[in-house]
Amino acid sequence: MTDKNCIYLKCTTCFDICIHCEMITTINLGERARLRLKNKQINKQTNLLVLVGGSSSPKFSEISVLIWDDAREGKDSKEKLVLEFTFTKPVLSVLMRHDKIVMVLKNRICVYSFPDNPRKLFEFDTWDNPKGLCDLCPSLEKQLLVFLGHKCGSLQLVDLASTMPGTSSAPFTINAHQSDIACVSLNQPGTVVASASQKGTLIHLFDTPSKEKLVELRRGTDPATVYCINFSHDSSFLCTSSDKGTVHIFALKDTRLNRRSALARCGQGPITGQYVDPQWSLASFTVPAEPACMCVFCRNTSKNVNCVIAIFFTPDGNCNREAFDAYLDICDDDDF
């Protein structure tokens, strides 16, 4: 889901679907296909699920994208596969909103109308994109799409609502980083885009209407692989995880909550400047460093606060979920 309410956990024979980090669905694609549901409607959003083939023993081809309709009646799982898109190269990721579906290939982005009578609307060329990086705004008011640009470290932004299908109007380019981009994310209204490079030390935030840099957030000083970047629903906070085994939380609405280096009081120098300028996280918590970790914001209704949820797999295959909702209580010191 592009609204960040859902997390999909892909196994060799099934897909588990979490809503607000509570398991609600298991779709089994084994020889004896089964479908177990607690709720037929996924958070009142859609009954459609996108499946992409791959892995060591794929059930579906990696060049095919299949659409699973959970509302469709039928005992056989094949009867629920209602649409198929086929490409000449592997599909690396797929994004979906209520009226469009986006397929991400290594050097190309394909946008189709969806779900009735799908037809290709747009095609965009990109820099090498082996991770399938792309994000799509779910807002009804804005149909913003962000993806890799034509050169190293650049991003392209295009408003699909204001671009005519079949036209060659060029997306707007942001030179976000000096090295290849490793992660990119839009906030829910589509007004801010955040990105991290392969170096993984800094997160850059840009205003999408003006394309100007808003702030620079420092994850750390050592290089790291950034797994994900996500905004809270009201865009007041941002969380990110990496292979350092740490989830960092930054304040965006009230940036005074973020920590700053005490070196800032000494003035900038040729060495300290790069560490003084950016804002450091207001809080962080640790998770196992070995498995990839995804982090998202959920609403803790009992405490009426944003809760950060970290989900990761242990080496034995168990899926763990950890919650952290006290980060505003530990940010008393502004400097470190």
TrEMBL record:
Main location: other
Superkingdom per UniProt: Eukaryota
Pfam families per record: PROPPIN (PF21032)
Keywords for this protein: Autophagy, Lipid-binding, Repeat, WD repeat
Subcellular compartments: Preautophagosomal structure
One MF annotation (Gene Ontology) recorded for this entry: lipid binding
Position of the signal peptide: none
Cellular component aspect of the GO annotation: phagophore assembly site
Classification via InterPro entries: PROPPIN, WD40/YVTN_repeat-like_dom_sf, WD40_repeat_dom_sf, WD40_rpt
Entry's Gene Ontology BP terms: autophagy
Family: Belongs to the WD repeat PROPPIN family.
This protein's name: WD repeat domain phosphoinositide-interacting protein 4
Source organism: Mandrillus leucophaeus (Drill)
